[in-house]
TrEMBL record:
Residue spans crossing the bilayer: none
Lineage, opening ranks: Bacteria, Pseudomonadati, Pseudomonadota, Alphaproteobacteria, Hyphomicrobiales
Record function comment: Involved in beta-(1-->2)glucan export. Transmembrane domains (TMD) form a pore in the inner membrane and the ATP-binding domain (NBD) is responsible for energy generation.
Record SUPFAM superfamilies: P-loop containing nucleoside triphosphate hydrolases
GO molecular function: ATP binding
Any Pfam family the entry gives: ABC_tran
Keyword annotations of the record: ATP-binding, Nucleotide-binding
Cross-referenced InterPro entries: AAA+_ATPase, ABC_carbohydrate_import_ATPase, ABC_transporter-like_ATP-bd, P-loop_NTPase
Domain ABC transporter: 3-231, 248-484
Entry protein name: ABC transporter ATP-binding protein
Gene3D superfamilies, per the entry: P-loop containing nucleotide triphosphate hydrolases
Length: 491
């Protein structure tokens, strides 16, 4: 299969073979072409050249409906269920043949019968907004099975799950594969998952087939080599220096969520210069709203934030004065303008100052482009040109572009929310190294993450957030995982 976007070749004569009744992993760096390949299979894109064969027969897949009719289904990284509806409503209404009047008692009866054949159960009458991330992902998978799709493509299905939930969901899928009910193609960045659950692996590098084989005959090192070729991994600097004075101070902060519920409740926290404070917690416990208040994207109801001793209201001028940087989650949505170029997005913080602007209004576009070109090189952003719209970059490369903008200069306060979500291991190594280097240079870092390993690796101090409050605090070096897990679950 070959797929060109204009003059750019995203997939170059790639071959992928998935055996029936197998669990196949698809690996590759950010921008390697994984999503493009599966979108071609699912009929979202029409490949420039190449075919999809199912059971050795060439098949015409012009749109996702054709793919569904052939039994192909896709589960995404983010949830697609309607939160305000029940699980049963979500399942029934996803069908192509929903009758104009639904006989719910019959449908429920049929659903119960369907569930009794499945290796895992979900609460049919619960509202999707009330169930955990693990249960939601199980529902997404059940929905595909309910719609009679027997070849499932999973695009990083565990990135919103805790390691325990991920193992549970993948373990159940593995059982279904072993019993011959299902075939799976899974995009992932986690070698642990590949080693534990997959039979075979295909590896892409820069749009080309870089390797494939049986997982039992490969080590994570072999796979990493095929993924990155001769590129060098960034080495993480050692932790140096002691924490200094308080830089960021949050005092009795109260903030509400969009529905008016209390999301952040009387929260107080300090972060010192040269210190990384990690916030652990299951997503949905107020972390997002806390970061939004610090980023100036949400009004606090009460409480105060101080930066370097001064009152702080998240204005652009204050952020500039205090050298604050932000790495929010979902960077394309929260930190970029999708239709604008990579260069313009990189310049968003500084565009109205010299050398990018003169007299406050004349914008020097060539200065934008020059600065962007340097940062594109330094942060290894895979983009055709600095003028390419940022929305057409792969997810990992959007993240790198935001990183280049936010960390490409002096930083005194850094607020990062799930900064490595969806990134390949080389990018994770680079971002972790950048965050540690900023800390070592004296920045105060607040790191919100759902990845406990990341928090333990980077933090000096760790706090647990539950129901909008900080319920536990420990030095990362003394952290006890069971204790942290207990507090994350609210016990
Ligand atoms: N609609 C599009 N228009 C132009 N270029 C695109 C489009 N979609 C993808 N690309 C380019 O194709 C390349 C492969 O992107 P793709 O999303 O397939 O990567 P990926 O391996 O899934 O990466 P990630 O792990 O970051 O999700 C990238 O360089 C991207 O910029």
């Amino acid at each position: 299969m070959t797929m060109r976007f204009g003059a750019f070749t995203a997939l170059d004569n790639v071959e992928l073979k998935v055996k029936p009744g197998s669990f196949h992993a698809l690996l590759g760096e950010n921008g390697a072409g994984k999503s493009t390949l599966v979108k071609c299979i699912m009929g979202y894109y029409r490949p420039t050249e190449g075919d999809v064969l199912i059971g050795e027969r060439e098949r015409e897949i012009n749109n996702p409906r054709d793919a569904h009719a052939l039994g192909l289904g896709m589960v995404y990284q983010h949830f697609t269920l309607v939160p305000a509806m029940t699980v049963a409503e979500n399942l029934v209404l996803a069908r192509d043949d929903v009758p104009p009047v639904v006989n719910w008692s019959k449908e429920k009866h049929d659903l119960e019968a369907f569930l009794s054949r499945m290796p895992f159960r979900v609460p049919l009458d619960a509202k999707v907004s009330d169930i955990s991330a693990g249960e939601r992902q199980k529902c997404e998978i059940l929905k595909q099975l309910y719609l009679k799709r027997r070849f499932l493509i999973l695009d990083e299905p565990t990135s919103v799950l805790t390691p325990g939930e991920a193992d549970e969901v993948l373990g159940m899928l593995r059982q279904m594969v072993e019993s011959g009910e299902l075939t799976i193609l899974m995009i992932t960045h986690k070698f642990r998952e590949v080693m534990a659950f997959a039979d075979e692996v295909t590896i892409l590098r820069r749009g080309k087939l870089a390797g494939r084989g049986k997982v039992s005959e490969l080590t994570p090192d072999d796979m990493a080599r095929m993924m990155i070729g001769a590129e060098q991994l960034t080495v993480q600097p050692a932790r140096t220096g002691e924490a200094g004075t308080v830089r960021l101070e949050v005092n009795k902060l109260v903030a509400r969520d969009d529905a008016g519920g209390l999301a952040v409740h009387d929260l107080s926290l300090t972060v010192r210069a040269g210190e990384i404070v990690g916030i652990a917690g299951v997503s949905g416990n107020g972390q997002r709203q806390l970061v939004e208040v610090l980023a100036g994207q949400r009004e606090a109801e009460s409480g105060a934030v101080r930066v370097s001793g001064e009152a702080y209201s998240a204005s652009r001028e204050e952020m500039r004065r205090h050298k604050m940087s932000l790495l929010p989650e979902e960077p394309l949505k929260n930190a970029c303008v999708g239709g604008m170029s990579v260069a313009d997005n990189i310049a968003l913080r500084e565009f109205d100052r010299a050398p990018f602007a003169r007299g406050g209004w004349w914008l020097n576009k060539s200065a934008f482009r020059q600065d962007a070109t340097t940062k594109i090189g330094r942060y290894k952003i895979k983009t055709r040109t600095p003028d390419t719209p940022i929305a057409s970059l792969s997810g990992g490369n959007v993240q790198r572009a935001v990183l280049a903008r936010e960390l490409g200069h002096d930083v005194e306060v850094l607020i990062a929310a799930n900064p490595c979500f969806g990134l390949d291991f080389a990018a994770v190594a680079q971002i972790h190294a950048e965050i540690m280097a900023a800390r070592n240079r004296g920045a105060a870092v607040l790191l919100v993450s759902e990845d406990l390993d990341e928090l333990l690796e980077l933090s000096d101090r760790l706090v647990v957030m539950f129901h909008g409050q900080l319920v536990y605090e420990t030095r990362a070096s003394d952290a006890d995982l069971t204790e942290i897990g207990r507090h994350m679950a609210g016990h």
